[in-house]
Design goal:
rod-shaped; five-stranded mixed β-sheet; mainly beta
Amino acid sequence: TFIQNCSVVCDSSAEDCNGVVLYARYNQSGFSGDITTQTTELVNLVDSFSCGDLSPGESCNYSFTIRSGYESGGSGYAVWCRGASTNFGSYISDIIVNVSINDHPLALLNYPSPYDWLHGVENLNGSASTDDVGIAVYTFELDNDPAFSSPSTICSGPDKNCTLNTTFQSQCSQEGAGCYLRLNVSDSEGLRNSTSIQIGIDNVAPILTLDRPPSWANITTSVYDVNTSVSESGSGIGSVVFSYRYNDSASWQTICTDTDGAPFGCSWDISSITEGISYQVGVYGNDTEGNIGWGGSHTNISIDRTSPNIRLEAPPDGNWSTGYINFRYNVS
């Protein structure tokens, strides 16, 4: 903002000067015009100042308050005064002032990037922002509306870093991508700039349901396909892990880790696993933001790859009979 002092005098040798009006005027790159409340490069607090009728020798003074427009940074302007009356026409001042407008700051986010998913406590960073005289204030805002009709201020101050707790914010829904982050910056001279991006927030774990093997399954093959159903509406599944253990007190052992996406499953090689009747199989998965969901476990699973040994004990070999015969077997 600067002050342009303008003065007009009615020539003492003339008659009254009627309807005298003062204007501030500018020239930039060959274009000249009055500085008004509607101009965009330089903006006046008023369109003009009316002095009314002036008697010969009478003067009129006014100080125009002029600010730079939001698009006028890094430019130079010639500024002068203009006086007009209804009976003597328009005249300009002899003195022309050169005015230079500093560059507006440039708002840029280092983190996050557009369409990133955020989780937990995040450190927002606006250090990529630049300005020729230095940025005085960084303001980070969050809204669920891209027009930022009712934003919440996360941080505002000289620090280019800002901590966002995505769990306790109320603007954006969990597992929703319709969230918008804006960085406003202003320099020490009050010039401003902003940038905004779309992000998602995900603090919700995926839901998994173990499908195979079911409880009480009897597995008799050397390879068995395990699988699970997964529901994830946010950042997407990162990995699904299948595990087994012999009983409640044993440690879990990994069957496989599936990172290839749906369908989620793998082939379980049980050729070297000890046979038993109390195995448990469980599954858990995490999304790309690290939220872990446990899909439960199925129990009382039998692994039995060995065929039964059946021996005929009676009647003995070579036996002949014309009546009823009792057969006796031994099975192990």
